[in-house]
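Researcher: Let's try something more involved. This one mixes different molecule types, so please make sure each is placed in the same coordinate frame as the others.
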Amino acid sequence: MSPRTRWWQRSIGGRIVLISLGLLLTVQLASFVALRSSLSEHAHRVLPNQLKAGERVLQNLLDRRAQTLISGARLLAADYGFREAVSSNDTETIVSVLANHGARIGATETALLSGDFKLRASTDDEPLSLLPLVERLAAQAIDSGQASALALRSGQPYQAVLVPVKAPVVVGWVLMAFPLDQQLATDLKSLSGLDLTLISRPARREPWSVNLTSLDAARAASLAGQSWNEPRDAAAMTSVAVLGEEIGVHDTMLRLGHESDGGASVRALVSLSVDEAVRLPHDLLLALIAITLVAIVVFALGSIFTARRVTTPLRNLADAAERLGGGDYVTPMTGMQRHDEIGELSQSFERMRHSIAADQAQIMKLAYWDPLTGLPNRARFRDDVQHAIGQARPGDAVVVVMLDLNRFKHVNDALGYPMGDLLLVAVGERLTRQVMRDGDVVARLSGDEFAVLLRSGDAALGLAVAERIEESFAAPFVLEEQPVDIGAAVGVACWPLHADDGDALLNRAEVAMYAAKHRGNGAQLYDPSSELASARTLSLMTELRHAVDACELRLYLQPKLALDTGQLIGAEALLRWQHPERGMVPPSHFIPFAEQTGFIHTLTLWVLEEAARHWHVLNEEGMPLPLSINLSTRDLLDQNLPQKFEALLSRRKVAASAFCLEITESAMMDEPQRALATLDRLSAMGFTLSIDDFGTGYSSLAYLKRLPVNELKIDQSFVRNMQTDADDATIVRSTIDLAHNLGITVVAEGVENGQVWNMLRDLDCDHAQGFHMGRPMPVTELSTWSTSWASARRAKALDSALLH
Amino acid sequence: MALGGTCVHAATVSVQVADRGGKPLAEAVVMLVPVSAHLPVRPMGGVEIAQSHRQFSPRVTVVTVGTSVSFPNLDTVRHHVYSFSPVKSFELKLYAGVPATPVVFDKPGIATLGCNIHDAMVAWVVVVDTPLFARSGAGGKAEIDAVPAGDYELRVWHSGLPESNTGVSMPLTVAGADVQTRASLATLGPRK
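Model: All components are placed in one shared frame. Result:
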């Protein structure tokens, strides 16, 4: 969640409330706008009519005023005394009567005209100014007996009437005029609610001035300031802005009684405020606001309640999911009793919880337990080892015994995988039953690899347990009534003696186990010097590749001698690594590794190549010796090996018969059929074949017989001890006899002194190798050695002859 | 008397009265006033101007100087007959029936009569100081018989003339033979 998200984006509840309130306000706003617009529309439709009605009211008012004036004038004209005065031409009386009657009805001007409209008497100081008006009124008066008109005099609009004075025929005319005053606007306002502003100007181009108004002075002035010059449509309403307020005006040009050539004119502006008409009535507005406020509160409460109903269970579900994520599969869900979507979701979560719990248990089992044997697996064992180390008290040791079944693959191939599985189960049971004490752990690490954890103990205890294991394997396993004999290589390592931590301890135990497998003579305690799989091995591969390219590899030859004559009859080619930093690296330090990685192919070919090269050299030096070369298991499994050898030999121009290929017993055991096929082809090519380290494996004689073997090399462990151990001597003797019976040449390895030499010679052994005669040496030294050996032999023979 | 001597030579003067449009005017008053002499006149008797149906009847009355005129009120409402004319200014305040004293018109001229409470009522009394007068008939023709020879001023008046207008006058010489002449008056049309 980015810090820039808004609060409503973080909460469904917030969004629900927001949307509800938003919709409400939108609806309220829309109805308010609709109301406003409808009011405005209504007002604009009605206002012109209202104004027009106002204009009619104004005309009516003016008519009534004229009527009043006429009545007053008629009253005057009908007055007997006045008529008498007129008839008797009593001017003084006439003027006083005029003034008297004028004052009665508020006329500011009253005058008497003769029958032919000549001014006879007037209350006005400037009676002549009335004359233009009289002219206009006269025609109308003659025509209809009376006349009325508006007049503009000194910027002031007047209403004037003319009525005849009859005695009884027309003897004169009475003219009365009075100014249009504020009362007119007041009357209009009270009758129609409309404002009236009367404006006038004495001439075109003059500004309009306000004569009377019901508006305030500023508004009236602003209204008068509008451009009223253009003729306007009498029916329409004109909207003008006055002091920021929209005012609707109905504009009427009032007809003046006198000719106005100069453009003098009077306009009646009947007006009302459009804004006010459009404005919502105050109480309605208040009601709307009140309704909106109440609705907001109700909606807010309602939507908060709804949001809670939704978000509270969601939050509970989120918490539950959090718990599931945290590994808590025990706490049941809440809200499952609901019948809505939340309830369904809760039930789904509940099912998920159960299924995850079950899966988790299964995963735990798969992760930490071997499903076949029911024993802990490597991961679990590793945890246990680390736990044991963590719990160990000072002085305690933690021991790991690791074992690997010998030739388990053979069992699988020969008896089938189901049988192999049964064997593994049986091994697990046997280990658990016969080996384990309380607190010890037996685990199946992989394939045919098992391990035992001894929580407290020492190297001695470890070795004791290892021996018990080996003993327990002495009895064959009976699988489906079929006895299966199987052995195991057992390695032992201790913490803190051999390793600093659990992983290292497992590694050391494995190293010890491989050492045991390699040596084949019982359980092995970890020996730091036999470290193969240490961290160094990682770099070994790189270094080994480099060694081939950088010519760090050397070919050494160990002489092979005929026991009867003591003559040099061959040599075993041995690989040595002259490391620039470590010095001479023993083969045991890199050959097993090369076998593991497959690099042994390269090494074997290198050896054959070098051997072929040296064969020519030796041949030229007068030593046409057959050279022995060691083949590994992997070499035998390589289908293309014979072809590669053939190509190499033809290139080097050496016959196959110049080489003897040595194969260990165990090399034959992993895949006997393929190994045998390879051997047959090599034999057919002309190579001499030899069984190396004979006696360490379990080759049956019948099997041996089937092999195309020419030579057999008795393992040095027997030869070395035959002087002291009668059994070994017997083994050597019977092996020699056996081989000879099968027509196989016998080579004894590990001849370290003259007595053994003599014993072997007496046993009719054919050839011998050993330090007594010569260690492995660089090829160039062989010639020198040969000369010195021959002279030593001669000297010895001489001594012997002399002794006898 | 010169005029008496010429009685045998008396002639008839007929005047055709019309308005400006040539339309014959009835009820026009035509009189002949001798230029140099004065013909004796006698007051007339039994002259009445009644008020009937809120009208004066007759509307135009020609009387000789000194004639008394009575104003019998035939209506049920009262009338207030007056005249502001200089010829004879008088006032008969609200009355019904016949006023006790008739009004004597003792100066020649035209008196306009009205009723103070009925503005529509108007009547004229033409007071002549000559025996030679006549009224035009429906055809606008007025005839004055037995006019002695001599120089006269012919005056023609009609109620349709404006108030201030006393009519037209023209010289007319009568030499024994009948005289026919025309008079045209600028009348205002029917009074309202």
